[in-house]
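Fold these two proteins, one after the other.
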Amino acid sequence: MSHIPTREQVAQLIDHTLLKPEATAEQVAALAAEAGELGTYSICVSPNMLPVEVPEGVKVATVCGFPSGAHKAEVKAAEAARAVQDGADEVDMVVNLALVRDGRFDEVEAEIRAVRESCPTDGDHPVLLKVIIESAALTDEQIVACCEAAERVGADFVKTSTGFHPAGGASVEAVALMRKTVGDRLGVKASGGIRTAEAALAMVEAGASRLGLSGSRAVLDGLEG
């Protein structure tokens, strides 16, 4: 790596995440406070926890169709719209993996479009949309096709994983393939199983422009300056 980012720079790539279904409001409040202390870009919490107070400068991200993606498109769109109403700045949606496996990418695209249309891109509260493709469960061809579908309908990011799929989380190979596919036109978020500074830096080197971390402090404590 020619340039090792500083602790502060890596912190500004982090969605500080708590998506355990049993997470309490008290734990989410502690997450938000810690995000302010660590200087992370955002927190990412379940939609039932919205609205949530965050320190100044910290964004609020939430999830949609999570974690399985096995929801009707209109349900995902309604969930995203409600999350925006409740103050979400960013929405991370899970694609329908059955459609992906079946090669029905017109329907994958239509689903992403439905969520995109429920998350305004203009006005006073533009909302950023990330598309979770569960890369560890897909072939390279399916990863590429998902990324292309997300780009066609105006998503802002593609994201590797929910962190809940038994196939696994982010890999350097998947991040590199996703970055190659979307170029510099979309962001790439690496999420799932990134627990060390070394792993985080490897994802950034491979092309990740955002990191989904639940153990943000441990990762940042492994970095210099």
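Now the second one:
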Amino acid sequence: MEFDFARLSRHPDVEAPNLHAVDAADRLILDEADAGRPASGAVAVIGDAYGALTLGAATRWGLPVRTHQDGLVGERALAANAADAGLSDAYASFELEAGLLADVQLVLLRLPRSLDALDEIAADLARWAAPEVVVVAGGMVKHMTPAMNDVLRRRFARLDVSHARQKARVLIARDVLPAEASAPPEWPASRVDPTTGLTVVAHGAAFAGATVDVGTRFLLPLLADAVPDARDIIDLGCGTGVIAASLARSRPQAHVRGTDQSAAAVASARLTAEANGVAVAVARDDGLGAVADASADLIVLNPPFHIGAAVHTGIALKLFADAARVLRPGGELWCVWNSHLQYRPQLERIVGPTRQIARNRTFTVTASARRR
């Protein structure tokens, strides 16, 4: 049987005409995996966006599927799509851990854009999957680089490259190198930032890795003036938790929280807080979906402007709306953003009166006060 991909939805993720729930790479991964599928046992899927690989594999082969998705929105979209198709019992969601990969002989992987993310996944495959595992890893050609081949060759003795089809391509890795199966873990990575003195801890899929990204670096020195008497502070889209840890260090009397929809980010932020000896409550959430109305005095945000590979402002606007709901009247959203995106009118409309705090050639920092 074949799964009807036309029924897949991105919801609750941002939807737009240029954003799709399935693409040619999903279809090619499934087709290329046909020859290597096991007769029994589970199939592991890593990086599925909205369920095309998970539900496609479950329908096509009738095997149990273990799935890991870094993004919470993707998990929720897969759950909704599975329920719609009557396939909720066909898969189980896992962290990127031994339970996902133990004894698995076939892995379907959407290639992440980050080489560090791919390296951590490859290391976990070598450590936990069956020695005879076959990894079918694919993506759209415009997002693939020869460096991805090099990353996989670090862990696998054989790498085959498929012909391109509809601008998609697949890499097939097999024969785990014995030394890699027993190698000590290289992830998460840890580094002390010399400017801030913060120890940054990061899993491979976390944005900016174990560094302080340039937007955050521009913002951090300005936060001393951000609602100095704030009792409840949120680092929205916290990534590795650099902003949250910095605020917790400088304001020990405040209750600091961090939220992110990325499992890798949440795990990294918790480790960053621990490494710096500060208290930060970190939660995996779709924006501030689980946070009560009017419960924060200060929210800090370095918003993404990509959805997958597409440039799109939909996520930022959603996060602005979440901040407006969660701020107490008179509370402020401090935001650093790429100046060319010109977010100030949206911040004025969604949150409230907005003033510019600082600007350089690349970034703008604004403070938006929640209307009373």
